[in-house]
Amino acid sequence: MKLLDKKLADKINDMISEIVTTCNKILSTDTKVESNTSFNSKDDACNRLKLVLMHDRSQLSPGQMQQMRDELVEVISKYVEIDRDALDLCLEAESNTIALVANIPILRHK
Amino acid sequence: MSGRVIVVTSGKGGVGKTTSTANIGCALAKNGAKVAMIDTDIGLRNLDLLMGLENRIVYTLIDVIEEKCKLQQALVKDKKNPNLVLLAAAQTRDKSAASPEQMLEICNQLKEDYDYVLVDSPAGIEQGFQNAIAGATEAIIITTPEMSAVRDADRIIGLLESKEEILNYKLVLNRVRPKMIQSNDMLGVTDVTDILSVKLLGVIPEDENIIISTNRGEPIVNMENAKAGIAYMNIARRIMGEEVEIPDFETPQTTFFDRVKKFFLATANS
Fold first, then answer.
1. Cβ contact B268–A42 (<8 Å)
2. Distance of alpha carbon B127 from alpha carbon B103, whole angstroms
3. What phi, psi does B205 have (nearest 5°)?
4. What's the per-residue H, E or C state across B110-143?
5. Low-confidence spans in chain B with pLDDT less than 50
6. Residue A109 burial (C-beta neighbours within 10 Å; 0-12, 13-18, 19+)
7. DSSP characters for B55-88?
């Protein structure tokens, strides 16, 4: 009997939740922007902003980053054989400082 | 007396520099301070309009610089508060009509007689901006929770940091829409302050009354119970050194249906 009560309570709970969301939807005066529940536009803005600000602050454009990457590959390749496509070069922010982080997978020593 | 010279700036245009200058100036004066506001947006002046003083401008900042009149003659008193004066920008010239040295001189003269000298900066980072910050020792950066405004604010912060006369700067986040923040579709207050790593001076909620107050040439702090007006009054009190809590615009308020749900759940579980 107790178990049945619990199930019933759960069912009522679900039903009410559904009614509440429907009602809130109908009554909401805002023009709701279709937002993807898993990834919303605020996170988009945050991530894009952080990236663009790192480039702004370091005064390095994406083009210059690419050039630096290419030149790095060339220099390092003189000494070790590296996976050119897997080389990862990026700017990372830590509180108030910006770091240039490179991850270079070595295939074998020359 | 030596007053504080505070520049109001943003980088991006249209985020509310002039509206903020008018309202913070008016709010400081309402709290009993003597306030002078300078519009440095030469060629595109608007602070006179927001204050409803456009018909009273006789002399401008440029007339003072070119010694066509005395500084005192160019100061226009506010309609309501005699402790609040405006030094308007010239409308027929451009930014090159003034130099940072001349602006510094005017700010230094004004701070002898006024507790606060608020300098309304033009948009951009060129000469107009350099003129505006020349005499300031403090800055208020206005931004909105939009990417372009935040990016430009970051640039302005960089420029202010390189000027050693600026002792401190704080952020005002303008045009905040709590509902959009709550549904994660707008940058929140902490998102912006974290990204810019800057101290917060205040948050102004989006308020349609701003348009009405501009239409009337009456700052919104003179309107009773307007959300934005209250926020500006609080900013003025914080500038004057009072501890005033910044309200939370990010946590959702419980709706009527939330309470109904809670009631039903309580009954079903009992």
1. no
2. 12
3. -70, 150
4. HHHHCCEEEEECCCCCCHHHHHHHCCCCEEEEEE
5. none
6. exposed
7. GG--S-HHHHHTTSS-HHHHEEEPSS-TTEEEEP
The answer to whether the beta carbons of residues B28 and B116 sit under 8 Å apart is: yes
Tokens 């590296």 sit on residue: A82
Nearest chain A residue to B181 by CA distance is A42
Rounded to whole angstroms, the Cα distance separating B122 from B9 reads 7
A87: which 2 tokens? 């080389």
* Consecutive 10-residue averages of pLDDT for chain A (110 residues): 68 75 56 52 90 85 84 88 84 75 81
Output phi, psi for A4, to 5 deg. -60, -45
The DSSP-derived string for A4-65 is HHHHHHHHHHHHHHHHHHHHHHHH--S------SSS-HHHHHHHHHHHHHHHHHHT--HHHH
Question: What SS3 state is found at B206?
Answer: coil
Touching check for A15 and chain B: CB below 8 Å? no
Distance (Å, rounded) from C-alpha B193 to C-alpha B200?
7
- pLDDT for the residue numbered A95: 65
pTM: 0.80
Residue range B4-269, CATH number: 3.40.50.300
ipTM for the assembly = 0.77
Distance CA(B215)–CA(A9), nearest Å, equals 56
Domain ranges within chain A, ordered by starting residue? 60-110
Task: With CA atoms as reference, report the closest residue to B172 among B236, B87, B88, B242.
Answer: B236
If we measure between CA atoms, which residue out of B32, B11, B35 comes closest to residue B22?
B35
CA pair distance B93, B127, nearest whole angstrom: 13
Chain B residues whose C-beta sits inside 8 Å of any chain A C-beta: 147, 150-151, 154-155, 158, 179-181, 183-188, 191, 195, 197, 255, 257-258, 260-261, 264-265, 268-269
Report pLDDT digits (tens) over B124-154.
Answer: 999 999 999 999 999 999 999 999 999 999 9
Tokens of A72: 């790095």
Please tell me which of the candidates A17, A35, A96 has its beta carbon nearest to residue B183. A35
Between CA B27 and CA B244 the distance in angstroms is 14
Calculate the alpha carbon distances from B207 to A76, B161, B230 in Å: 58, 32, 11
pLDDT tens digit sequence for B39-83: 999 999 999 999 999 999 999 999 999 999 999 999 999 999 999
